[in-house]
C-alpha cells in the first residue's frame, strides 16, 4: 500500500517510499528522519502529520545532508482528492513539491 502525502486542499502531491519522499511523477524530492521532513538536499521543511507536511513551529532542525538520489520510483497512480483538511498549522508541502 502506498503512503500518499496530501496538501491542505486534499490533493495527493507525493508519496513515501522507504525513507524518501517522491513527487507524483516518481522523482525523489525529499527525505524523512522520523517525522521530520527534509528536502533531498538535507534542508529542513516541516513535520509529517496526518499525511501532510506542516509547519508545527518547531524551529529549524538543520540540515541532515544529501543521502544521494534514490532514483525515480515511478508513478503509483492518483488516489483522488481526500477532502480539505486543517490541523491548525500551515501546510508547507509547496516548499517541497513546488506551488
Taking pLDDT < 50 over at least 5 consecutive residues as the criterion, the unreliable ranges are none
Strand order within the widest beta sheet: 1-2-3-4-5-6-7
Shape: flat
Largest sheet: 7 strands, antiparallel
Number of helices: 1
Question: How far is it from the N-terminal to the C-terminal residue, by CA?
Answer: 26 Å
Summed up, what is this model?
With 99 residues, the protein is mainly beta. It contains 1 helix and 7 strands. It has one domain (3-97).
Provide an overview of this structure.
- This protein is mainly beta.
- The protein has one domain.
- Helices cover 5% and strands 33% of the residues.
- The protein contains 1 helix and 7 strands.
- Strands 1-2-3-4-5-6-7 form a 7-stranded antiparallel beta sheet.
- The longest helix has 5 residues.
- The radius of gyration is 13 Å and the shape is flat.
- The model has no long low-confidence stretch (mean pLDDT 92).
Features:
99 residues; mainly beta; 7-stranded antiparallel β-sheet; Bflower; 4-fold beta flower domain-containing protein
Question: Topology of this protein?
Answer:
Layout: E1 3-6, E2 12-17, E3 20-23, E4 28-33, E5 36-39, E6 44-49, E7 52-54, H1 93-97
Antiparallel strand pairs: 1-2, 2-3, 3-4, 4-5, 5-6, 6-7
Domain 4-fold beta flower: 4-82
Biased composition (Low complexity): 59-81
Pfam family, one: Bflower
